[in-house]
Structure formats: C-alpha cells, structure tokens
Amino acid sequence: MKFRDFTINSHSTREYVDESLEIEDISSIKTYLNELNELVGKKMGFSFILMENGAAVYRELQGFGGYGGLMIKSPHYIGLRIDKVDHEIEFLGAFYMQGIVKKLYEMNIGSCWISLLNTTPEQKVKLIKDQPGTIKHLLALGKPLKKIKKNERFKAIINRLSKYDQDPYGIAVIQIDEDRLSVVDTIYLKKWGTVAPFSEMEKRGVLDILYYVRNSPSFQNSQPCRLILQDGYAELAVINPENEENYTDAGIMMFNLHGLAKEMSFPSIWRFIRDESDNKEYRIVARIEM
To answer: Where is the Putative nitroreductase TM1586 domain (predicted)?
Structure first.
C-alpha cells in the first residue's frame, strides 16, 4: 500500500460496531505493540498498553476523555504511557503511535486519537495500573460502524499542481480539508515567516510531499506545525511551544512526513531537536533530510 493512500484515506473513526475484534487481530496487535515496546519504547521512555476491556475504560473516562469530555466509545483502546512529561518522549511516542494507526488501517480496523487532557491523575493511574509515569493519549480501535467503499476512496497521485484537481471521472485526486491552512501558510524558506514560493518547492521536488502531509491530524485541528526549507533538509517547528499537545502533533506530522519522503525516494533521515530557547512564538523540534 502506498503511503500516500494512507495519508488521504485514513480518517478518525468515531463510531464502532459494538463487538470485539477477532482473536487473530487482537493477537497481531499484541505482537506489534510488544515489538515496539521492546525495540524502541523501552529505550526512549514510553510504552503502548492494549486495553481489551473497552467498556470499562469508557465508563471510567466518560465525561472526561476526549475533546470537551466527549469520550469515544470503542471495544478496545491502546494507551500511550510515557515515563515523564518531556517534549522528546511525547514527540517520539506520537511518532510510533501514528505508526500503529497505519498498521490498523492496513488491517481494515478503525482508530481515533483521544486526548486525556481533562482527566484526573487518579484516572490516569487506573489506566496504567502499576506502571510508572503517566498517560496523555489513547487510541480507540475497533470495527468501523460505517465502512468506506472502494469507490469512495480517494486516489493518490503525484505531480499535480492543483490541490483541487479532479480526474475525468470526477474523483478527487488529493483530498484537502477546506478548514486546513494552505501550503503557503505553513511552509517557509530559509527563515521563519518567509513564505516559500511554489516555484521553489517545485524545483526542490517537494511540492507533492507538502500537499499530502497537510492531511496530518492535530488536536482540535489546530495545525501547529510549520516547515522551514533549508538546503538539503527541512526543519519542523511548532507554534505556541508552551502548548504540550503541539509536540504530540509534531510527532504525528513527522511520521507522515518521513513516510512520504521515503516513498518519494528522498533520504528522509530525521532526528529530534531539543530547542532550549525561550522563543514564545515557535520552536524547532526536528529536522529531516529532503
């Protein structure tokens, strides 16, 4: 499956069939989470917890979890536990959590990010039980109540200049949410605030990547991420750096950016940057070769 297809066809599932996933699917998910915990999580300060009894989690968090306390009901949840509140851990945890979203998408399982911003410390302790640290996000998962038909899926293409282009059969080729910021609002050239011209993005061969990566989800669709194009690489920055959720959104953005860049044959090597400046407007959080 092309990564571009994932970025335009993966949507948050908010309604689920009221039944558990198949045993085989649960087993595959457990194996995948265990691998992530052993290979990266243990070293980087986070872990993923599969919560099979979704009904109990929902009862505990109803009125607290999710945006405005609107908790999403699902048969299962995956928790992102972090050792401590730290920008790098939150960024990396979100990067790999979005990888789980892609894995579930490939298994035809719906999912949705859930913020635990308004939950109490006691509720978080119940979720992670005897494990140290805290938990700030869940992933709801299960069988989608409404399945997307093949003819309702968007087609992933490259080398189209128009974000609203359509093929002769009336199928949108790049899905762009009207509420999202345009490319020119989120991409800078060399320094903060200097808009990157379309001609420059096209010359560098990154225009298609930047169109697709705009579909990256963010808390309350706030779109806090910006890219600063440098020579041979791009810097990923967040606005309003005092907002902890923005580092999670940046991790999600980096997962999508890395996947798209790799698919389009860019080096795509990236690393986290701990910006210790006191800049209140923005901070650099990562860089990627492209």
So the answer is: 11-167
